[in-house]
């Protein structure tokens, strides 16, 4: 804007932002005063037929469609501060500058006024939507008007981009609020957590965890959580990675809570997958080919791999144009399962990885991510 002001060689330069709610700009009335300078009288207007507009037209138009500007950006002489103000409805009504801006906004006309004070019959002391007083005291020429048009386009683009950016920021804030709300409700309650943390965890044999013929039918919901905790204990993960016991309990309960009661891809399916992984580690002796971190990552991935499954597949998401499909065009649901897993881990009270070093944390998250994304069978069949 500063460059544009220099280019057009005018003393002041203001941009009015058209909009809905308004608010204060008493400084408007001071804009046009040029102490110590006498402007040569001339024909009121140069180009663009602005001479057909009289102050009366402008006032009438203002009454019909009152101007609604939210913000005014105003540049003055070099070295002085740029003013950004939010005018009130009263300011806009009483300011001639704002009225002219409003007229230009309503009619789309470019006004090139020789001497605003004269034009207004010296009733008011100011005018103009954007450019005020050429520095050399001469009136604006056709060339200035052309330049000004280019400037207006430039301003328009800039303002449009700014507004888009502001909207994007607002949407991001909105999303953040929604996420905060979601993670609050996604977390298991304290009472249930404390209760589970106090209870004894039956042995692995009791739940038949080492066997490939494990069956969850006889376990009640509380037992499914205890069986999960037992697997963490058997694999020595709680001790190795200093997982606070209460955090582990809350995390298991939260994961369980974030499974929907669908026919197949529910919490019990997750438990069965995790138990099969556990039996492969222990009974299948796969444990020795894995690092501790990989074991931790895989067990967490098994438990989280179908989080928030809606009982519909990726093709359904794509065909129904669901927001999830817009977000992820491939492996739609798998990305969502991983996102939910991260969302749960993101609250401190659920973060079972909190004692990990940043390096280990990064590694384990990578393992969880690639394991969950690999559960997209479409990707699996592509590889064979
Ligand atoms: Zn699954």
UniProtKB/TrEMBL annotation:
**Stretches assigned to coiled coil:** none
According to the entry, every stretch annotated as the PDEase domain falls at: 189-384
| InterPro entries to which the protein is assigned, alphabetical | GAF-like_dom_sf, HD/PDEase_dom, PDEase, PDEase_catalytic_dom, PDEase_catalytic_dom_sf, PDEase_CS
Recite the UniProt keywords alphabetically: Hydrolase, Metal-binding
GO terms of biological process kind: signal transduction
Q: What residues does Zn(2+) 2 bind to? A: 306
Catalytic residues per the record?
265 (proton donor)
Report residues binding Zn(2+) 1. Answer: 269, 305-306
**SMART domains the UniProt entry points to:** HDc (SM00471)
GO terms for MF: 3',5'-cyclic-nucleotide phosphodiesterase activity; metal ion binding
- SUPFAM superfamilies, sorted: GAF domain-like (SSF55781), HD-domain/PDEase-like (SSF109604)
* Pfam families in the record: PDEase_I
Q: What PANTHER family does its record include? A: CYCLIC NUCLEOTIDE PHOSPHODIESTERASE
* Stated name of the protein: 3prime5prime-cyclic nucleotide phosphodiesterase
Which source organism does the UniProt entry give?
Popillia japonica
* UniProt lineage: Eukaryota, Metazoa, Ecdysozoa, Arthropoda, Hexapoda
């Amino acid at each position: 804007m500063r460059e544009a002001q220099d280019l057009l060689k005018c003393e002041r330069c203001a941009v009015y932002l058209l909009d809905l709610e308004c608010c204060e700009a008493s400084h408007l009335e001071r804009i046009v005063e040029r102490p110590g300078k006498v402007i040569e009288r001339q024909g009121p207007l140069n180009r663009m037929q602005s001479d057909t507009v009289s102050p009366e037209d402008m006032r009438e138009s203002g009454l019909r469609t009152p101007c609604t500007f939210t913000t005014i950006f105003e540049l003055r002489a070099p070295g002085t501060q740029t003013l950004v103000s939010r005018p009130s409805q009263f300011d806009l009504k009483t300011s001639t500058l704002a009225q002219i801006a409003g007229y230009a906004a309503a009619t789309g006309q470019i006004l090139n006024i020789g001497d605003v004070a004269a034009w207004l019959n010296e009733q008011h002391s100011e005018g103009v939507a954007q450019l005020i007083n050429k520095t050399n005291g001469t009136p604006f020429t056709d060339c200035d008007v052309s330049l000004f048009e280019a400037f207006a386009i430039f301003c328009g683009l800039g303002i449009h981009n700014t507004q888009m950016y502001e909207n994007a920021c607002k949407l991001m804030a909105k999303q953040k609020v929604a996420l905060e709300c979601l993670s609050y409700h996604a977390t298991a309650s304290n009472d249930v957590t404390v209760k589970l943390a106090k209870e004894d965890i039956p042995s692995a044999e009791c739940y038949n965890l080492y066997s490939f013929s494990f069956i969850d039918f006889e376990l009640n919901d509380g037992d499914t959580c205890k069986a999960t905790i037992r697997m963490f204990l058997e694999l020595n993960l709680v001790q190795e990675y200093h997982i606070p016991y209460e955090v582990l309990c809350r995390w298991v309960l939260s994961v369980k809570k974030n499974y929907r009661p669908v026919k197949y891809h529910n919490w019990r399916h997750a438990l069965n997958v995790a138990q099969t992984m556990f039996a492969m580690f222990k009974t299948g002796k796969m444990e020795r080919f894995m690092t501790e971190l990989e074991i931790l990552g895989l067990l967490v991935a098994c438990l989280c791999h179908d989080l928030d499954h809606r009982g519909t597949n990726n093709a359904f998401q794509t065909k129904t144009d669901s927001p999830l499909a817009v977000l992820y065009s491939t492996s739609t649901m798998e990305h969502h399962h991983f996102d939910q897993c991260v969302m749960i881990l993101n609250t401190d009270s659920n973060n079972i990885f909190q004692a990990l070093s940043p390096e280990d944390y990064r590694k384990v998250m990578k393992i969880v991510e690639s394991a969950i994304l690999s559960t997209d069978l479409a990707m699996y069949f592509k590889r064979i």
